[in-house]
Amino acid sequence: MKRQEKTFFVANLTEELKSASALVLINYLGLSVKMQQDLKARLKEVGASFTVVKNTLFALAGKAAKIPEETLKDTVLQGPLALIITESDPIAPLYVLAKFAKEHETPQLKVGIIEGTFQDKEDLTELSKLLSKNTLYSQVIGTIANPMYGLVSILEANLQKLIYIIQKYRTKKV
After folding, report:
1. ∠ CA 9-10-12 to the nearest 5 degrees?
2. Cβ pair 55, 81 in contact under 8 A
3. Distances in whole angstroms, Cα of residue 52 to Cα of each of 46, 49, 123, 126, 148
4. Is residue 29 over pLDDT 90?
5. Considering the chain, what percentage of its residues have pLDDT values greater than 90?
6. Per-residue DSSP letter, 1
7. Whose CA is closest to 104, among 39, 45, 23?
8. In this structure, is the dihedral angle defined by the CA atoms of residues 43, 44, 46 and 48, taken in order, positive or negative?
9. Is 25 within 8 Å of 110 (Cβ atoms)?
10. What's the confidence (pLDDT) of residue 173?
């Protein structure tokens, strides 16, 4: 990459980092090209992107985007580095990565930033076991709505009993 291309790349990456709801750094060592394409396709389905990036360029973009310093440590920025970025559901890419890692035993999570909070490898692994936000929202709504359905059923049953009694009373009078 020429110097001018690097500057342009860092500027674009900085903007992506600023607008991301989540970013995850992974060690992609051991991923064949075909596996990378498969992972990219899976991540695209959940609104995330997979980018292989040089450590130095990521460090420059990270400093410009003012991401947490823990992410830019030398211990993190060693070896092959790929970046997973999403602007939508921050947990969905982690779920995809965990499922992919189970199938292929690679890639390895390094660190990440989920909704502005630094997460280490263990935290990311725990978060990958959670359900997506939409699923959790639907479960909460279902839990809240369930008693209302019960109340409606009880009231409806009482109305049916009342109608039955009125019909029986009407048939006796006639």
Report:
1. 65
2. yes
3. 18, 10, 23, 24, 50
4. no
5. 22
6. -
7. 39
8. positive
9. yes
10. 66
- The residue type of 49 is S
For 72-124, what is each residue's pLDDT tens digit? 888 888 888 999 999 888 888 888 998 998 888 888 888 999 888 898 888 88
CA distance 94 to 27: 14
Q: If DSSP states are collapsed to H, E and C, what string results for 96-134?
A: HHHHHHHHHCCCEEEEEEECCEEECHHHHHHHHCCCCHH
Residue with tokens 């709801």: 21
Q: Extract the tokens encoding 157.
A: 């049953």
Instruction: Report d(CA 83, CA 74) in Å as an integer.
Output: 16
Look up residue 29 and give its DSSP letter.
T
Written as six digits, the tokens of 54 are: 């040089």
Listing from the earlier edge strand, what are the strands of the sheet with 22-27? 48-52, 82-86, 22-27, 108-114, 117-119
